Amino acid sequence: MEQGGAVSAAIYVLIIGAVVYFRLLRPVRLRASRLWVGPALIVVVTGLLVWQSFDSNVSVPTIAGAIVLGVVLGFPVGLLRGRHTKVQPTGQPGVLIVQPSIIPLTIWGVAFLARFAIRYFFAGQSQPVALAASDGLIAFALGSIIGARYVIAQRFRELGAA
């Protein structure tokens, strides 16, 4: 990975870390309409990171397959994590308090460290599957956040109907 690419990747990682920290590691008062803002921002920034680090030795279908596989494997982890997330009603209709969890930050940290390690150790080598797998790791983290938010959205509907 070249110097400029490493710096811009570090900036993306810091932005995603800040979003994960401020949106997922503190008790957050959420409206149902804003439930998907944090995950959408993370998806956009992650997409920019993957696009910025695109390696021409890896075919787009291989990267797309790794990303789909990562999301498919991460989604059930997110569903499980979402079931253990405490959601409490507030006095305001349509507003809930979502309790924090260290698990999202851990998943993101491990995914980004593993991605960096794979890209560092296979730099300059023609290893398209390994490079695509590194993008799949990030997609796994995305899938876990989307799965957790899906469960939390169901709780919004349940508590809103009660």
The neighbouring-strand order within the major sheet is 1-3-2
Which class best fits the helix and strand makeup?
Answer: mainly alpha
Helicity level:
over 70%
Biggest beta-sheet profile: 3 strands, antiparallel
The overall average pLDDT, rounded, is 80
**How many domains?**
1
In whole angstroms, the N-to-C terminal distance is 53 Å
Strand content: 5-15%
Count the DSSP helices: 5
Describe this structure in words.
- The protein has about 160 residues and is mainly alpha-helical.
- It has one domain (about 5-160).
- It is about 70% helix and about 5% strand.
- The chain has helices spanning about 5-25, 35-50, 60-85, 105-120, 130-160; strands at about 30, 85-90, 95-100.
- A 3-stranded antiparallel sheet has the order 1-3-2, with helices on one face.
- α2 runs antiparallel to α5 and α4 runs antiparallel to α5 (about 130-160).
- It starts with a helix and ends with a helix.
- The model has no long low-confidence stretch (mean pLDDT about 80).
Write the SSE topology.
Layout: H1 3-24, E1 28-31, H2 37-52, H3 60-83, E2 87-89, E3 95-98, H4 103-121, H5 128-161
Antiparallel strand pairs: 1-3, 2-3
What features would you highlight for this structure?
single chain; about 70% helix; mainly alpha; 3-stranded antiparallel β-sheet; about 5% strand
Briefly summarize what is shown:
With 162 residues, the protein is mainly alpha-helical. It is 71% helix and 7% strand. Helix 1 runs antiparallel to helix 2, helix 3 runs parallel beside helix 5 and helix 4 runs antiparallel to helix 5.
